[in-house]
Amino acid sequence: MKRKPNISFEDFLRVDLRVGTVKRAEAFPEARNPALKLWIWFGEDIGELKTSAQITDLYQPNQLIGRQLIAVVNFPAKQIGPFMSECLVTGVVDGAGVVTLLQPDLDVEDGLSIA
Questions:
Q1: By C-alpha distance, which of 55, 65, 83, 68 is closest to 25?
Q2: Cα within 13 Å of Cα(12), Cβ side
Q3: Model confidence over 72-112: pLDDT tens digits?
Q4: 64: left (phi over 0), alpha (psi -120 to 50) or beta
């Protein structure tokens, strides 16, 4: 995979990456591609945001409850079928399109920024 074009440091600072804990997860059978619906707690300042994630190759809903993830929390909400996605979880995508979620090595406070 080729490297993406350079961006400025100011561009990077505009992306609001935060740590949050999955509080609820369920299958999303209405999605066009296999996906899960997640409700993630980002602390008192941001609260709970929901998202749809195409992560069914490696994850089942019950495995995600209580797991901390890293997500972008300042994208506009996006309607995905009957579900409104409010954030974007981050992951590593391999050559087959399988996503491995990014998470902190240790438990940290929900809502902390990624630098």
A1: 65
A2: 8
A3: 999 999 999 999 999 999 999 999 999 999 999 999 999 99
A4: alpha
* Distance, CA of 91 to CA of 100 (rounded, Å): 5
Write down the domain spans for the chain: 9-101
- Asked if the 9-101 domain carries CATH number 2.40.50.140, the reply is yes
Quote the pTM value.
0.94
End-to-end CA distance of the chain: 24
Query: Distance (Å, rounded) from C-alpha 79 to C-alpha 69?
Result: 21
Length of the chain: 115
Closest alpha carbon to 57 in 100, 112, 115 = 100
